[in-house]
Amino acid sequence: MTDTPRQRLDKRRVRRTFDRAAASYDQAAVLQREVCTRLLERLTWIRLSPGRVLDAGAGTGQGVRDLRRRYRGARVVALDLSPAMLRAAARSAGWWRRPALVCGDVEDLPFADAGFDLVFSSLAVQWCNDLERALAEFRRVLAPGGLLMFTTLGPDTLVELRRAWAAVDGRPHVSDFVDMHDIGDALVRSGFADPVMDTERMTLTYGDVRGLMGDLKAIGATNAAQGRGRGLTGPARLRAVEAAYEGFRDGAGRLPATYEVIYGHAWAPQAPAPKRPQRVIPIQRAP
């Protein structure tokens, strides 16, 4: 991994913001929907007949719906940190053959070893404090010969917004993201075989900065860094950010919001995964 420490995320805040965004997510998640669709399309070129599938970071259930159609005989489990997102996924799935819904963290998966043949995860692991721990958990729950398919975001994501805020103050306003090559190295260290990584840049455009910020809030992608400012953003500072962002306006009069999308897949070797260390809880003797 890189030597520069990443900002740690407040996981309780992450859960709360996604809970609040569950009702507005589908309307605003244009990029997230497209990235998930492209990741699902990549499964077409991989010969796999999984009996047990985990969608890790299922959100409102787009991946779950397609995975159930694609692998009709498989048992599909939807996991998400946000209970409200899982409720939205349940509603979208309908009453027939509703998927199993599990509220949990990808950094500490509540599943037995080797329980899945496919782990699918679209734009979820960037919300981890310890990416390598999350990858090790994916490796642990995959059966020998199982497949991990995932997307995440790279360091150039929202670079315009990051630079605009940097011109105003030194506090974190945009999450840190891990470089593609570091993720590939982490996959190998986590016990995966034959990792394949690639990246593409996708750009959304807006008439003004407030439109971008409104979309980020609507999908729950707000600032959750532990070192973030705790107060509301005042009008003067917001105007300063808007002025700094104006330097990125393109020839068509639009403001770009760049996303560096990283795609990855890797296989679980035939050898069993390393066992997760068991936590030892001390037993106090009665007086």
From TrEMBL:
<keyword id="KW-0808">Transferase</keyword>
<dbReference type="GO" id="GO:0009102">
    <property type="term" value="P:biotin biosynthetic process"/>
</dbReference>
<dbReference type="GO" id="GO:0010340">
    <property type="term" value="F:carboxyl-O-methyltransferase activity"/>
</dbReference>
<keyword id="KW-0093">Biotin biosynthesis</keyword>
<comment type="function">
    <text>Converts the free carboxyl group of a malonyl-thioester to its methyl ester by transfer of a methyl group from S-adenosyl-L-methionine (SAM). It allows to synthesize pimeloyl-ACP via the fatty acid synthetic pathway.</text>
</comment>
<dbReference type="InterPro" id="IPR011814">
    <property type="entry name" value="BioC"/>
</dbReference>
<comment type="similarity">
    <text>Belongs to the methyltransferase superfamily.</text>
</comment>
<feature type="domain" description="Methyltransferase type 11">
    <location>
        <begin position="54"/>
        <end position="150"/>
    </location>
</feature>
<dbReference type="InterPro" id="IPR013216">
    <property type="entry name" value="Methyltransf_11"/>
</dbReference>
<dbReference type="Pfam" id="PF08241">
    <property type="entry name" value="Methyltransf_11"/>
</dbReference>
<dbReference type="GO" id="GO:0032259">
    <property type="term" value="P:methylation"/>
</dbReference>
<dbReference type="InterPro" id="IPR029063">
    <property type="entry name" value="SAM-dependent_MTases_sf"/>
</dbReference>
<keyword id="KW-0489">Methyltransferase</keyword>
<dbReference type="InterPro" id="IPR050602">
    <property type="entry name" value="Malonyl-ACP_OMT"/>
</dbReference>
<keyword id="KW-0949">S-adenosyl-L-methionine</keyword>
<comment type="pathway">
    <text>Cofactor biosynthesis; biotin biosynthesis.</text>
</comment>
<dbReference type="GO" id="GO:0102130">
    <property type="term" value="F:malonyl-CoA methyltransferase activity"/>
</dbReference>
<protein>
    <recommendedName>
        <fullName>Malonyl-[acyl-carrier protein] O-methyltransferase</fullName>
        <ecNumber>2.1.1.197</ecNumber>
    </recommendedName>
</protein>
<dbReference type="GO" id="GO:0008757">
    <property type="term" value="F:S-adenosylmethionine-dependent methyltransferase activity"/>
</dbReference>
